[in-house]
Design goal:
Blueprint (H helix, E strand, L loop, with lengths): L7 E3 L7 H7 L3 H8 L6 H8 L15 H14 L2 E6 L3 H16 L3 E5 L12 H10 L4 E5 L6 H7 L6 E5 L15 E4 L15 H15 L2 H4 L11 H10 L6 H14 L5 H10 L8 H18 L3 H8 L4 H30 L2 H7 L3 E5 L7 H12 L3 E7 L2 E7 L6 H5 L6 E6 L3 E7 L3 H15 L2 H4 L3 E3 L1 E2 L7 H8 L13 E14 L4 E8 L2 E7 L4 H6 L5 E13 L2 E11 L1
Parallel strand pairs: 1-12, 2-3, 2-4, 4-5, 5-6, 7-8, 13-14, 16-18
Antiparallel strand pairs: 8-9, 9-11, 10-11, 14-15, 14-17, 15-16, 17-18
Helix pairs in contact: 4-8, 5-8, 5-10, 5-14, 8-10, 10-11, 10-13, 13-14, 13-15, 14-15, 15-17
Length: 576
Amino acid sequence: MTSFPAKWQGRKIGKTNKKLSNKLKFSQFLIDILAGRNISSEVEVMSFLNPTLKNLHDCMMLPGIEKGIKRIKEAIASNENILIFGDYDADGIISSVILYKFLRELGLNTEVYIPDRFNEGYDLNLDFFKKIFSQSKYNLMICVDCGTNSLEVQKFIRGKRELDVIICDHHIQSVDLDVRQENYIIINPRIKCSNYPFKHLSGAGVTLKFIIGILRGLEDARKKKFSRDYLTTLLDLVAISTIADLMPLVDENRIIVKKGLELLKRTINPGLKKMINAVVKDKECIDEYDIGYIIAPRLNAAGRIKNARSSFDLLTAGGKVLDELLNDLNSFNEERQNIQKKIFDEIIKSNDFDEIIKEKRIFIEKSKEWNEGVLGIVASDIVKKFNIPAILFRESEGKLKGSGRSTDKFDLYGNLLSCSGLFDNFGGHRTACGISMDILSFETFYNNMIEIALKKIEIRDIEKKSFYDLELDFKDINDELLKEIDLLKPYGISNPQPTFVTGDCEIVSFCYLSEEKHVKFKLRSAGTEVAAIMFKIDKNVKEKIKAGKKINILYKIEENIWGYRKEIQLVIQDLF
């Protein structure tokens, strides 16, 4: 076995049943890849490779859902006015869309409010709630993708029955909640009292579960308003929310995204269909890349640059207005890209990251000039480049509003809890957060987080590591292996595209492409030749490329289509 660099780490494969390969008619390679992802029994393998809707968990296991369904039934019986309050990102927008269209189909008087990121910030705030409460227009408010930690609102309405609140959320609970409160109902798989078997649904995933529960509990006359496949038609949007919010693509999320991607090709949503026709190149092979890098950024762009209502309107409207809305989103996305690049370049130019990595292990900065709508994705760019956590703030009128991103090694949300007394508001997940606080608290927060990062993050944790599934011989790479690898799609968080290593590969020939930014190879190992390509090469890589030289490679396997020609091609991630 070849000795590979320490930064190339193989996934640990536990004991595998050698008979499983023959029994299931799959190669041992596929069985071992799955075992490296803790999928080893016959039931687990077949469930993962053949995800079906019948394997979704029972929605009635969600905490609070029975109370929520009962409250909706009351709203139906009394023909109440309902306000949906949704977050301004793609997940919150989609949650709002599917619930709004469902409740309207039921005949309920329903309106939607998407807060302004810049003027109102994240989550349901007390001032807004008091305003809605005083108007006495609505009997019920449903908050989607937010609301779990709105403790001030929960306390304010305790005992008041003029306006009830239902929360459909997936954020970690960070405050002490009274889950028994009758007029503040929380449906969230991640609150502390939850026994729901899967904790990582998107906000729209939780909202979908709520819709399933409501529909299941309706009398037959009302159920007839909906087609038999109604719930299935929602999966394209919920799949987008799941990928956009970086949820792990395992368990229920794998089922939702797999089925949602199939549905995207024939979506019945007019706005989504128009977007796909305009911006997706291969309409017949829409995949997770198209969602993550083409569709979701456009839905997010409105909330980052102006107001997210444009994205909501695109997914709920029809007719000629769709062209104008799509043009707006494309324009917002282009502006977002320019602003993002400008801020990132400014940060790189103004800071010595070698020193920051050595002395601080975390990057925290603020500016009065930055657009707060893009700070999360700029922080993500910093994490990708330097592999350290990053938190960026916009300063305005003595207040800071910011976003953070982190690595798998550093629980950003968990470590922020120790500083929560400094915040006006905060929330998030293990690798992402949103924070608002007074400028006077910044220095204390800054010093505390550096102290925590220095304790929790070792220098060795910062070195970027690449994980591979198996070591392969070139003779084992063929069409059958590629077909089996494709069974693992869709790829994403917790289910990455399989990566392999091969040692002692001879460079038979090579040629540079696109002004020497990329390089194509013909490689030989143990008498078998394969085609390979490596993108965005640097000076260090060029120094290792020479005809006849032996190299070790870390790579993915893909099908390269060029005109009418198809061939298997290795996409090299690293070499030495």
